[in-house]
Amino acid sequence: MESGYTITFAALGSQFLVGLSRAMILFIVSSGMSLVLGVLRVPNVAHGSLYMIGAFAAFSISSLFGGGSTGFWLALVFAPLVVALISFVAERSLFRHLYEREHLMLLLFTFALMLILGDLVKMFWGADYRSIMAPEMFQGAVPIFGSPFPKYNLFLLGVGPLVAVLLWLFITKTKIGKISRAAAVDMEMVGAIGINVSWVFAFAFVLGCLLAGLGGALVSPTVSITLGMDHDIIMEAFLIVAIGGLGNMWGALVGSLIFGLTQSFGVLFWPQFAIVFPYAAVVIVLTWRPKGILKSVW
Fold it and tell me: How far apart are CA 184 and CA 205, in angstroms?
C-alpha cells in the first residue's frame, strides 16, 4: 500500500464487489471442473481450453449477428452449446475409453488435448486479440459505495448465484442428477440395475464442459479474447477445486470466493504483489485442511 494512501469504507466495498464478480466467473468454470472430477474422476486439464473456445465462439457468434445486444445474447446461448458439442464428440470418441486408467495417464492425456485444442483455436481464429461489446443495457456504471461500478459486473453478480442454484437443483432434484451422484459412489451397482453408466458419464462430462464454455462467453466482454487465456483459468480452477474439496460444488463456490476476494483486496492493499494473495490463501487453506474446506467426494 502506498504511503499516505487512506483506505476508505467506499474503497473496501467497491473492491469487495469487484472480487465477487470475478469469483462468479471462477465459480462457473470451476464448478464444471468439479462436476467432472466428482462424477468421472477425470482431472481435465483441457477444461481451460474449452473456456477459451467458449470465448472465441462467443466472439464469432456475436460478430455473425452484427454485435450489439442481439449478438451478445445469442452468443451467450450458443457459444456454450458449441463447447458442449465439442466435448460430446471428445467424450464419445476418446474419454469413454480411458475412465478406468490411472489418474496420471488421464492427466497427461488431457494435457495433450489442451495443446491440440490450443493449436486448433490458433488455426481457426488466428493469433489476433478479439473483443466483444457488452449489451447497451450493461454498458456504463452505477454509483455504489460512492464509486462507479460497471453494470456488467452487476449482471455477473446475478448470473453466478443463478447458475449455482440451477446446478444444485439439477444434482439433487432430477433423476439424471441423482443417478450421476450414485454412479460417482458405486458405478458397478448403478450398472447392475440396468442403467447405462457410459451415457451418464457422457452427460456429466458435457454439462461440466458446457459450464466452462458459459464462463468463457460471460467473461468475453470484460477481457481480451486471446490465445493463452486458458492457462491462467485452468491453474486457478484446479486450485479452487482443491481448496473447496475435490468434486464438491459448494466447495467450488467457497474456493472461488476466497480466490476472487483475496485477489481483489490484494490490488487495494498491495497492488505490486496482488497476484500473490490468492496463492497465499491457497497455501494457508491447504495447510489447515489438506482435503479442502468442504467434504471431498474422492
Answer: 12
Could you tell me the three cell numbers for 234?
Answer: 485452468
Q: What is the pTM of this model?
A: 0.92
pLDDT tens profile 178-199: 888 777 777 777 777 778 888 8
**In this predicted model, what pLDDT tens digit does every residue of 108-128 receive, in sequence order?**
999 999 999 999 999 999 888
Class of domain 9-288: mainly alpha
Residue 50 CA to chain centroid, in angstroms? 10
CA distances from 213 to 29, 73, 270, 292 (A): 8, 14, 32, 26
Mention every residue, 6+ apart, whose C-beta is less than 8 A from residue 22.
Answer: 260, 263, 264
Among the listed residues 26, 25, 30, 87, the one whose alpha carbon sits nearest the alpha carbon of residue 53: 87
Domain boundaries, the chain: 9-288
